[in-house]
Amino acid sequence: MSRGLNKVMIIGHLGKDPEMRYTPSGRAVTTFNVAVSRSWNSSDGERRSETEWFKVVSWGNLAEICNKYLTKGQQVYIEGRLQTRRWEDKDGNPRKSVEVVANEMTMLGDRRDKSQSNDSFEDAPPDIDEDEFPF
Predict the structure, then answer these.
(1) Using one digit for the tens of pLDDT, what is the confidence trace for 63-80?
(2) Which helix (H) or strand (E) holds 53?
(3) How many domains does the chain fold into?
(4) What is the Cα–Cα distance from 31 to 15, expressed in whole angstroms?
(5) CA 106/CA 74 separation, integer angstroms
(6) pTM for this model (two decimals)
(7) Average model confidence (pLDDT) for the chain?
(8) CATH number for the domain harbouring residue 23
(9) Do the domain assignments include residue 122?
(10) How far is 27 from 62, CA to CA, in rounded Å?
């Protein structure tokens, strides 16, 4: 019997602080959006970039951790699976949303205390883009 694979890995920055709520059964669920940007040189040498936004949903203990530690602008690694959620809006129109259901989260980037977040990032390493690699 063959098996399928549904695995997503993203690294990006939070667009706003996470939002946590509880289901009627008391299970925590936290949602947040992650922006993943990429840049490249076009065939005419022009620098281009684009940003893709992902809606991330986390459940249970991971939801509580995400809500407690993640903040707007923070870089994060998310691993999980894609899920399409379908529902009807208040007017009866069918709606759908594709979400990343997280099963792993790792905070990346600057580990300074939030009280020091006003400091400049002059010493931070420059962003590396895929066109700079020699292979």
Answers:
(1) 999 999 999 999 999 999
(2) strand 47-59
(3) 1
(4) 11
(5) 11
(6) 0.74
(7) 85
(8) 2.40.50.140
(9) no
(10) 11
CA 23, CA 78: separation in Å to the nearest integer?
A: 22
Instruction: Give the contacts of 39 (CB within 8 A, at least 6 positions apart).
Output: 47, 48, 49, 50, 129
Q: What are the Cα distances from residue 43, in Å, to 7, 14, 46, 127, 130?
A: 32, 31, 7, 22, 15
Cβ neighbourhood burial of 10 (10 Å; 0-12, 13-18, 19+): middle
pLDDT tens readout for residues 4-38: 999 999 999 999 999 999 999 999 999 999 999 99
Q: What's the token pair of residue 74?
A: 């923070």
- Domain of residue 54 covers 8-110
Confidence of residue 110 (pLDDT cuts 50, 70, 90): low
In a domain, 60, yes or no: yes
Q: Name residue 68's amino acid.
A: K
* Residue (of 56, 74, 61, 52) closest to 19 by Cα position: 56
Query: Is residue 128 predicted with pLDDT exceeding 90?
Result: no
